[in-house]
Amino acid sequence: MHYGYFNGTIAPTTELAVGITDLGLLRGYGMFDYFLTYNGKPFQWDWYWERFRNSAAQMHLPLPLGKEETYAVVMQLIEQSGEPDVAVRFVMTGGYSADSISIEQPNLLILTEAIHPVPPVQYENGIKVILDEYVREMAEVKSTDYKRVILKAPDIRAAGASDLLYQRGGEISELSRSNFFLVKGDRIVTPNRHVLRGITRRTVMELAAVDFKVEERPVLLSELYDADEAFTTSSTKKVLPITQIGDLTIGDGKVGPKSQYLLERFNELVQGW
Amino acid sequence: MHYGYFNGTIAPTTELAVGITDLGLLRGYGMFDYFLTYNGKPFQWDWYWERFRNSAAQMHLPLPLGKEETYAVVMQLIEQSGEPDVAVRFVMTGGYSADSISIEQPNLLILTEAIHPVPPVQYENGIKVILDEYVREMAEVKSTDYKRVILKAPDIRAAGASDLLYQRGGEISELSRSNFFLVKGDRIVTPNRHVLRGITRRTVMELAAVDFKVEERPVLLSELYDADEAFTTSSTKKVLPITQIGDLTIGDGKVGPKSQYLLERFNELVQGW
Question: Which GO terms describe its biological process (chains A, B) (predicted)?
Answer without folding.
Answer: amino acid biosynthetic process; carboxylic acid biosynthetic process
